[in-house]
Amino acid sequence: MALISGPGTVFCDYLCYIFMFLSVATSNMVATSLANKDEELAQHQVSTLLFIALTFGIGMFLFTKIFGVQVLTAFTGSKNHEIISAANTYAQGHCITISILAATRTSGTVHVGILGMKDAWGPLKALAAASVINGVGDIFLCSVCGYGIAGAAWATMVSQIVAAFMMMQNLNSRGFRAFSFTIPSTRELLQIFEIAAPVFVTMTSKVAFYALLTYSATSMGAITLAGHQVMVNILCMCTVWGEPLSQTAQSFMPEMIYGANRNLMKARMLLKSLVMIGAIAGLTVGTVGTIVPWLFPSLFTNDLLVVQQMHKVLIPYFTALLVTPSVHSLEGTLLAGRDLRYLSQSMGACFSIGTFLLLLVRDKCSSLTLCWWVLVFFQWSRFGSALQRLVSPTGMLYNENFNQPEHVKVKAT
């Protein structure tokens, strides 16, 4: 199953992840408006971004339905005949799964909008309900009814729609009009683009790097790809634990950095706490996430050859996972302070160097372990770059004039 889902995951799930820039833009804009005590503007921004999210979701569904199999086959490579056959079958089922994306993009926008209002319980309840519905639906449709991957897709779609409506009701209870969709003007699109474009570059760079990592493993044969995909899936499950640190920074930092009651000292203290929590979380999740595939690989596969490939990358896997939560906290702070140009340029540089190293390893060494060490370089480079920017005396946490409207106006003049 890992072998089948590898290229399919890269195309379908990573395509969805690229459009996470909408969630980041929503959280950033809503948190900033509320920090400036402007609830009317926050309402308008939520309505506008809901319309954009729904539009993108429908567009993603149509693109995947029409071009999904062709792109997946091109990615897999003409030499890997055994993978192509399985991947094509997987893609046919996954086209149904992509029908959830319109609901996913909408619920994701509402989700981070609520988080921008510093309300974590509403999204938590909605996601808990969605998880239960998805789990029960998977068991009933896949095991009882025998619908296979199509049943899993329908269960996911229903759970996402339920989550979206629950979070919209949460917004309504807070006095917002969650079911109000507003078509953005040209000026509003430009404003959203100024925030979303650098974030899009950042998200695309991360997605492209992980796609290249899987592409490099694809060229090493079916067994190597299967072991790689198992470890990538475990890595993705573990990195989720760092996302709350990024959301916390994006929800609380705007008020401290440039809100009505700005306080850079408190912002620095919050960042220090987030980085410390990230270090503890990275060590804990990294240790547990490494011990499980090391000592209990049968939970994922019974193929000894695949297990051997998994064990080859355990050390770089742990090293990359160790720093990931701290990276989330640092990059979340950069997003909150709208230091977007630096973030996108830094990510672009890390991606370019990482891509060069990946292609070099793939062509010269054909080693899965070395490919994962390139991932370690990518993660730690992001950490070092973001940390250096935030502790700089001219950065947002030390410079009183950083990114302030008056300062920007003087510089422009």
Tell me the radius of gyration. 22 Å
Uncertain runs are 1-5, 97-103, 405-413
How many domains is the backbone divided into?
Answer: 2
Largest pleated sheet: none
Give, in order, the helices and strands: HHHHHHHHHHHHHHHH
Based on helices, strands and strand pairing, what is the structural class? mainly alpha
Helix count from the secondary structure assignment: 16
Pfam families: MatE (PF01554)
Protein name: Protein DETOXIFICATION
Organism: Triticum turgidum subsp. durum
Membrane topology: Multi-pass membrane protein
Summarize, please:
The chain is mainly α and 413 residues long.
Description:
- By secondary structure, this protein is mostly helical.
- The protein is built from 16 helices and no strands.
- 47% of the residues are buried.
- It is a multi-pass membrane protein.
- Belongs to the multi antimicrobial extrusion (MATE) (TC 2.A.66.1) family.
- It comes from Triticum turgidum subsp. durum.
- InterPro entries: DinF-like, MATE_fam.
What key phrases describe this protein's structure?
single chain; 413 residues; mainly alpha; 2 domains; disordered C terminus; MATE_fam; DinF-like
